[in-house]
C-alpha cells in the first residue's frame, strides 16, 4: 500500500464537530481534508443553544464575539391558558456571571449561523470545506487509511494517516467500522421548522397546550439573529405531517386556537423520531467517531451540538500531538474521557424530555456543561500534599489578573491558543522553562501577574509554591509542587512537549 499521504487527517462531515476539528488542525499546522456529501452548507437550525462551556471554547477558537453578535439570549417564554390569559417565565435558571465563570447563560445561535461562523474562522486559518464529496468506502492498514470518495461521476482515492467520522447519526463511517449504536427510539416524534411567520410577537417565545394536553402542545419562538421563527411540536407516531406553508399554518391554528397566525414561507423543516443512542466505541484502528456519529440526543436541554463541539475540541489537540510524535496511547484518553460525558448528557436530555411531556421542564445548571470533568483520566495527575479546589481533570476557571506592567488580563487570555499553560503561584523563581507548546506564567507578588483581587486564589486555592498545568482544551492536567520539577518534566515528556514543533496561532 502506498504511503503517499494526501493529508494527515480526512474528516468526513462538515457540521459543527467537523468544523471545530478542522479549526483545531489548521491552527496547529496539521494537514487535513474536510469533506461533506452535501453540495452546499446545511441551512436549518436543528441545534441552536450554545451553552456556557461551549462559549468558553468559542472564545479560545476566536469566534465568541461573532457568535454573540450574530445571535442573542433566549427570550422569556409566554405560556397561554385556555381562557386567554398567560404567564411569562424564564426558559432556564438565571445564574449570574462570576470571575471564575464569565459565561452564565445559553446563547441562541441558529445552527446554520454557527456553522457559517466556524467556516469563516477556518477560512482565516487557510482551510476550507469540500462540498459534494461523498465517502463511499475505506480501507485501513497499519500506516493509514485509504478512502474512496465520489464527486459527481468521478471517484477520488484519498490516502490519509487518520480518518474521523463526523458524519451524523446515520454515520457511514460508524456503520462501515461495524461499531454498534445501541439505545432506543424514545416514543417521541416531533416537527421542527424554521419559518417566516406573521401574527405573533418576537418579544417572547410562545407556548400553547390547549386543555393541558402536552401531546398537543406547540412552541413558537423567534430565532435570534434572523427574521424567522422556529416551530416545535410533538406529533403522533402515525400522523401525517404537511410541512408546506399551508400545512404548517393549519398545524399552528389547530394547536394554538388562533386563526391569525400565518406561515408565509418554510426555510427548513423536519419531521423526525427522537433517539438516545451511544456508540459502543469511539475508535477502531485509525478511525474515530465524533459528534452525532458517536451519540444522538433528544433536543431537550440543548446538549447535542455542544457535546459534539467538545468531542472535537478534545480529540483535536491529542491527534495533533500524536502526529508530532507524542505516544499513540494518548489517543486512548479520547474515548475514556468523552464517552462517559455523552452517556451522562443522554441521561440528562432524556429526563428533560420526560419533564417536557409533563409540562414541567426547566433547565438548570446541569445543562451548562461547566461541571464536566475527567478526574479518572490517565492524563489527570495530582502531586501536591494539599487538595486544591481545582484538582486535575477539572475545568480551569477564569480570574482577572493585573500584569506587572499595570494592564488587566484574565487567566483565559493566558490559556488562549493551542499550547499547554503552566501557572506557578507565589513562586520566586522559574524552575520550568517555557518551550515550544508550553507557556509558563508566574502569578504572585514577584511574578509577571498579580492576583490583585484575590479571584485567582479563590478559584484555585493553591498554596505558595504550587502550580497548575492546564491542557490545550482548558482542563487541568496536573497540579504540582513547583520545586518537584522532575515530576513536571516527566509529565511533559509523556505528552511529548519536550520535542513539539512551534505551533501556529
What keyword list fits this structure?
505 residues; alpha+beta; 8-stranded mixed β-sheet; disordered C terminus
Structure description:
With 505 residues, the protein is of the alpha+beta class. Helix content is 25%, strand content 29%. The protein has eleven helices and 27 strands. Strands 1, 2, 8, 9, 10, 11, 17 and 18 form an eight-stranded mixed beta sheet that branches. Strands 6-5-13-14-15-12-16-19 form an eight-stranded mixed beta sheet. Strands 20-27-26-23-24 form a five-stranded mixed beta sheet, covered by helices on one side. β1, α1 and β2 form a beta-alpha-beta unit. The longest helix is centred in the last third of the chain and has 26 residues, at 332-357. The model is unreliable at 499-505 (pLDDT under 50).
What secondary-structure arrangement, pairings included, does this model have?
Layout: E1 7-12, H1 16-26, E2 32-36, E3 49-50, H2 52-61, H3 64-70, E4 72-73, E5 77-80, E6 86-89, E7 107-108, H4 111-124, E8 129-131, E9 133-140, E10 145-151, E11 154-165, H5 172-177, E12 183-198, E13 205-208, E14 218-222, E15 229-235, H6 245-256, E16 262-278, E17 283-284, E18 287-289, E19 295-296, H7 304-323, H8 332-357, E20 381-383, E21 400-403, E22 408-410, H9 411-415, E23 420-425, E24 438-443, E25 449-450, H10 455-460, E26 466-470, E27 476-481, H11 485-494
Parallel strand pairs: 1-2, 1-11, 2-8, 5-13, 11-18, 20-27, 23-24
Antiparallel strand pairs: 3-7, 4-7, 5-6, 9-10, 10-11, 12-15, 12-16, 13-14, 14-15, 16-19, 17-18, 21-22, 21-25, 23-26, 26-27
